[in-house]
From TrEMBL:
PANTHER family: DNA-BINDING PROTEIN STPA (PTHR38097:SF2), PTHR38097. SMART domains: HNS (SM00528). The lineage of its organism: Bacteria, Pseudomonadati, Pseudomonadota, Betaproteobacteria, Burkholderiales. The keyword Cytoplasm applies. This is Histone family protein nucleoid-structuring protein H-NS. One of its GO terms (cellular component) is nucleoid. It is found in: Cytoplasm, Nucleoid. Residues 4-39 form a coiled coil. Residues 56-100 form the DNA-binding protein H-NS-like C-terminal domain. Belongs to the histone-like protein H-NS family. It comes from Roseateles chitinivorans. InterPro entries: H-NS-like_N, H-NS_C_dom, H-NS_C_dom_sf. Signal peptide: none annotated. Its main location: cytoplasm.
Amino acid sequence: MASLKDLLAQRAALEQQIAETQERERSDAIAKVKSLMQEYGLSVADLTARAAKTGTAKSSKVAAKYRNQATGETWSGRGLQPKWLKAAISGGAKLEDFVI
């Protein structure tokens, strides 16, 4: 059975190997990327411009379709009905009563 001192020394050696391997693999990846960029005539600006074009579009807000006249709360008609609307409908009101 190894002593604590031996185990700590082994851990330090492993951490050193991990750091060296990470650095080597990172350098290899950078070299690959640079090679591909040179092969296809790309610049960093090309990469950032393409990423901006293919990024997810922000979802725009949907206009409210229903309004609670008492509180001013609104609902677009998408997703779950808000509690105030559910309560009003269960109290006898109709959805059409809240149309904006």
